[in-house]
Design goal:
- The complex is a heterodimer of chains A (348) and B (289).
- With 348 residues, chain A is mostly helical.
- In chain A, 77% of the residues lie in helices and 0% in strands.
- Chain A is built from 14 helices and no strands.
- The two termini of chain A are 27 Å apart.
- In chain A, 53% of the residues are buried.
- In chain B, helix 1 crosses helix 5, helix 1 crosses helix 9 and helix 6 crosses helix 8.
- Chain B has a two-stranded antiparallel sheet.
- In chain B, a hairpin with a 2-residue loop joins strand 1 and strand 2.
- Chain B has a domain of 194 residues.
- By secondary structure, chain B is mainly α.
- Classes of the chains: A mainly alpha (348), B mainly alpha (289).
- Chains A and B meet through helix 1, helix 5, helix 6, helix 11 and helix 13 of A and helix 4, helix 9 and helix 11 of B.
């Protein structure tokens, strides 16, 4: 019972501690943390429009978290969601810009292209690891920069809006936008795709043989090899899927939110995804909940930037601290300590 | 032609200096068995500290010293979390990078936006003095690692901590020392970037150098001179990138910017298999009773 409740209490403790340290920084800036957080909360949940904006951010964030989780379940650390998102967004944009056709079909093709583009960018990391032993953390970070500059080149050159100096493509025609699912809000069908992706992840992990095999690899390389499960094949597959979901996030961001490809469009969603995955324990349900929290922080952060003197980057700091505290596992470490001491007094 | 080669080499040595400090810091930690994926975060903290302290005290050396102190403390914190809680070092490193980015961006926007360092390091024969110090540190690191007791102990801790502990040497103590020294070196690299190469702080100005340093150490097979070689290779990439950007020729600017990163990936691919990692690298050490 303690174990079950600590599963919920542990992340909550981490969040509270992160906000506590964040408050110290806000105090240092000379602002009131409570009123800052109130602005953040109402920015995230204050109206149906705000809630829908939060859920739109949740969509992209959770898919980015899914990217991290997919690799992590195979024992890999994918810091490359940011770059994979860029490539996914580029692939989807190219389809929309150069393949005219009925809106519905083009959007589906663009989403597929986004997934595939990100997947190939991720697979590249898997290949470099399997073939050359190149550490995936370093290669994913390096490829993030490469992807970012590739997109920058594309939107300042070959696919730039000819009528603008801005680093962006033309606005897509609205037949190629993802449909809005709630009238009067910006919530779009990508949200449903995100939930389907989480369901797929859960089924894959716990109801299929390849998912089971991949988790064995993630837990113990050698045991997997003994059991005849190929570490190499699983590494490639996991990086392909991880890249794919990040690519899908990128495609959804351009088709459902920005409606054009912009320089810098990934705007840290890739790194936010790490927090989503860790806070949600790489579990589909957990990631859905942490996706909502991180989405709220992101949309609330915009309100903080607008209405207070606190820079929105304080949200990035709190997000990073959430990761640190989740890793430290404060609650169980402290509980364990108390238990040990209790045991000592009883036996002593 | 000869002139342009010399000016290219001179620029390369200059641009390589911050990375050399960072790579040496990473090397110290990795040799003792700790993976420092958080170098990027420690470096950016060094960048901001360097500019702020240099500006206020009007002395670049004091700025560098302050950066060493602050980043060294972050190194110790990293060490404490890794050694006391046995956290996954790679993920913690990534978290440290995000903390570093979030903290420096927030503090910079709130207090120091656009602050100029105001002064810089002195130079000798055309190179800033820290460049000579960095090269001196490479030699010192070699002597310490292979000719002195502390270095031999440090390397043993990275290879086989159980044996080291069994002869009565504290594994934790050695790794704490490595974390503090490593963080301090990384921090100075940051300060030299923001006050020696440039003269102000900009958000995320480290641009992946913390990770490139990790690649340089792998490239250099965990030896000081090998690391120097790795740093110079990346220095070629960076210098070439600046030249191509400034050239304004047919080569797109963005591809020039990509160059150091692509080079890092290629170098990792070419050298990862040959580099023998310290056997206990990244493995949490549990003291047996």
């Amino acid at each position: 019972m303690i174990k079950k409740s600590s599963k919920v209490l542990e992340p909550i403790t981490s969040i509270l501690l992160a906000f506590l340290v964040g408050s110290l920084v806000i105090v240092l800036i000379g602002e009131d943390p409570l009123s800052t957080f109130r602005v953040m909360f109402s920015g995230a949940f204050g109206s149906s429009v705000n809630i829908s904006n939060t859920l739109v951010k949740t969509t992209t964030l959770t898919l980015s978290g899914l990217s991290y989780a997919f690799a992590f379940r195979c024992g890999l650390i994918n810091i490359g969601a940011e770059g994979q998102m860029y490539i996914g967004a580029l692939s989807a944009s190219v389809v929309v810009l150069f393949m005219p056709g009925p809106g519905f079909l083009v959007v589906i093709l663009a989403l597929l292209a986004g997934f595939l583009g990100g997947a190939i960018w991720g697979l590249l990391v898997g290949v470099l690891k399997v073939r050359f032993g190149a550490n995936e953390v370093i290669t994913t970070v390096m490829l993030n920069y490469a992807a970012q500059y590739l997109i920058q080149w594309a939107v300042c050159g070959p696919i730039q809006d000819p009528n603008s100096n801005a680093a962006q493509t033309v606005m897509f025609e609205d037949t190629y936008w993802m449909h809005y699912i709630l009238p009067g809000t910006k919530l779009h069908t990508g949200f449903l795709l995100m939930i389907l992706s989480l369901v797929f992840f859960g089924i894959f992990l716990w109801k299929t043989a390849p998912g089971f095999g991949m988790q064995i690899v993630g837990q113990n390389n050698q045991a997997a090899a003994y059991a005849g499960i190929s570490v190499q094949k699983n590494t490639l597959m996991a990086m392909f899927m991880a890249g794919g979901f990040a690519g899908l996030a990128g495609a959804i961001e351009v088709l459902g939110v920005q409606h054009r490809l912009l320089k810098g469009m990934a705007s840290n969603f890739g790194f936010d995804g790490i927090a989503v995955a860790l806070l949600g324990a790489n579990h589909p349900v957990g990631m859905f909940l942490s996706g909502i929290l991180l989405g709220a922080m992101k949309s609330g952060g915009n309100a903080v930037q607008m209405f207070t003197r606190v820079p929105s980057s304080v949200v990035d700091l709190i997000r990073a601290l959430v990761i640190v505290f989740v890793l430290i596992n404060v609650l169980s470490k402290v509980l364990l300590q108390v238990k040990k001491e209790k045991g000592a007094t009883i036996h002593g | 032609m000869a002139d342009s080669i010399i000016s290219f080499l001179a620029a390369m040595i200059r641009y390589s200096t911050p990375l050399l400090f960072v790579a040496l810091g990473v090397l110290v930690m990795e040799v003792s068995g700790i993976v420092n994926m958080g170098a990027e975060g420690m470096m950016i903290i060094g960048c901001l500290t360097g500019v702020v302290v240099t500006h206020h005290l009007n002395n670049a050396w004091l700025g560098g010293l302050a950066a060493m102190l602050v980043a060294g403390l972050f190194g110790l914190l990293f060490g404490a979390l890794v050694l006391e809680f046995r956290i996954n070092q790679t993920v913690l490193g990534v978290a440290f990078n995000l903390v570093g980015a979030g903290l420096t961006t927030t503090l910079n926007r709130a207090f120091f936006d656009g602050m100029n360092a105001g002064t810089t390091y002195g130079s000798f024969l055309g190179f800033p003095i820290p460049t000579y110090i960095a090269i001196g540190l490479v030699i010192l690191a070699w002597v310490a690692m292979y000719k002195m007791k502390i270095g031999v102990q440090m390397r043993s801790v990275g290879e086989n901590p159980v044996v080291v502990e069994s002869v009565g040497i504290s594994v934790k103590k050695l790794r704490y020392i490595a974390c503090a020294a490593g963080g301090a070196l990384v921090g100075f690299g940051g300060a030299f970037l923001s006050t020696g190469i440039l003269s102000q702080f900009t958000e995320n100005m480290t641009d992946g150098r913390g990770f490139i340093a990790l690649a340089a150490v792998t490239f250099g097979k965990y030896t000081p001179f090998g690391t120097l070689g790795g740093v110079l290779v990346f220095g070629i990439g960076e210098t070439l990138s600046y030249r191509l950007q400034a050239g304004g020729g047919a080569f797109p600017y963005e591809f020039a910017l990509m160059l150091p990163y692509i080079l890092t990936v290629l170098a990792l691919c070419a050298f990862s298999r040959n580099a023998k990692d310290p056997a206990a690298l990244g493995v949490p050490y549990v003291k047996s009773h």
